[in-house]
Structure formats: structure tokens, C-alpha cells
Amino acid sequence: MWNGLHTEASVKNFMKLFRTADAIWVNHGDVTVQMNGESWDALVTRDDLFSYLSAARNGSNAGTDVLQQPIAPIGNQEVWAAGVTYYRSRDARMEESKSAGGGDFYDRVYDAPRPELFFKATPNRVVGPGEKVAIRDDASWSVPEPELTLLVTPSGKITGYTIGNDMSSRDIEGENPLYLPQAKVYDRSCALGPCVLVADRPLSPGTEIGLEILRGGKTEFSDTTTLRAMKRDPAQLVEYLYRNNRFPNGCFLLTGTGIVPPDSFTLRHGDEIRITISEIGTLVNCVG
Q1: Is 253 helix (H, G, I), strand (E, B) or coil?
Q2: For residue 268, how far is the Cα from the chain centroid?
Q3: What is the per-residue pLDDT across 109-145, written as a single tens digit (0 to 9) for each?
Q4: Residues 50-109: tens digit of each pLDDT
Q5: CA atoms in the 13 A half-sphere facing the CB of 244
Q6: DSSP H or E run through 241
Q7: Cβ–Cβ < 8 Å for 161, 149
Q8: Structural domains of the chain in order of their starting residue, each with its CATH number
Q9: 3-state secondary structure string, 115-174?
């Protein structure tokens, strides 16, 4: 489970960093300030991001209307992901792959010191709020995976958090664990947003993650979990990711999912996926 570095105290001092088509914005409550002359990559690679944005809050208030159409909060960052970090995910992976003889792999990695880490997306494969995520044409069992996502600087410091949707083709991964890259990495297989939460402390283990899938305007599936159910500490995941790896523009790391729809469920075109993390907001995407 999470180690003692993470307290139960809720985040009280925070800002939200948004990207729109024409600017970068810092929002703190009712105050929204434009980051004039800033490039996204230069900004999010700063180890002092919280204090730097705190100073920017004193600028001219643009109001919150400018935040109505955010785009994916990503520049040239790679997106990576961790797997089998929740017990529920372990069970699901074992069940889907048992006929292929791979079930034991997931049981072992859940208890192993080394986490499962894999490459998820380049920026061009990522969509933002309101955009369409995709399901593979050659898959018959597709699900979203709602995940807390870390913003990590080139030095390996966690400076922010966003919401990630790690779209997955469960039948392809279940057929053979070696097919994981095909099940996970394809065009529009990842969504990020709506913003990056930059806080003065790590998120509480009690932070709730919620998933709701609507079909024809009606809830087809919904569930919640908390970060307390995550076995691995985010700092541990980052430490392993940065072993013998360089990220000149920083990176995003999806930390795994604790919400898995029943085996009878698969996404369809037109489904609306809503992922909420209380401190960050709600990421909404349709399948198309």
C-alpha cells in the first residue's frame, strides 16, 4: 500500500494548469491568469512548478470562461503506464489471460518488488477533454481504465496530477500477454485532462476516482475506488521508470486502475466515458 510519505490531509493549497488552443492558464478558485510567453514544455519541466505558478497568480484575472474548452495538457512528453497496481486489476488480468497460461504472470507482478511499466503513448496518440477516444477495429472486448496520472519532471520529481484514460483491448491482452503493446498502444488510445493539478503536497490516499459510462444517455456502468486501494506508491513507480531512462521534456505516468467493468461489458461507438478525480475535475470523452 501507500507508504507513510502520503498523509490523510486533503490538498488545501493548489492551482490548476490548463491548456487551451491559444494560451496556458493558471486557475486558483475564481482567479485565472494567463501565462504570457510561456511554452508548455519549458513550464512543466520545472522542479519549482508550484512556487513558480504561485507567483503568477498575482496577474490580471481573466475569469473562468476562458477555461471552457481545454485541450490535452501535453506537449512533447511521453506517456507511460503502470499495470497491476490494484488488487482488482490483478484479478481481472488473471481471469482474462488464464486460458493462455498467463494468469500467473499477473499474480507474480502484483507481489514482486519490480512494478509492471510500459510505454503508452506519444503526444499524437493522446486526446483531450471532449475529444473521441478509439477502440481497435480488431478487438471485441474494449474498456476504459480510469487512472490517476502523474506529471514528472526530467529530474524525476512529481509536480502535478491529471486524469488519464488508459484505453485497453482486453481480449487481445488476454489472448497472450506478449500482445500488451497492441492492446494498449494505438491511435487515440489515451486521454488526458482536463488540467494538471499542482499542489503543495501529495494527494491523500482517500482521494476518490470515479468512472461512469453512459450509453444512450443512461448509465451503463459506474464504480468508484480510492487511492488507498493502490498497492504501490507513486514515488516508487517513478523511481523504477527513471532507471536507465531519460525524459528531457518530462513525462506522464498513469498509475494503474482499480475499476474494471464486468466481463460481460465492452465499449461501443457513441459511449460517453466520464472519469472524475475529486481534486482535479472530470475528464469526458466519447468513443468514436
Answers
A1: strand
A2: 21
A3: 667 788 999 999 999 999 999 999 999 999 999 999 9
A4: 999 998 876 678 888 889 999 999 999 999 999 888 865 545 444 554 555 555 666 676
A5: 0
A6: helix 234-241
A7: yes
A8: 14-67 (no CATH), 78-287 (3.90.850.10)
A9: CEEEEEECHHHEECCCCEECCCCCCCCEECCEEEEEEECCCCCEEEEEEEEECEEHHHHH
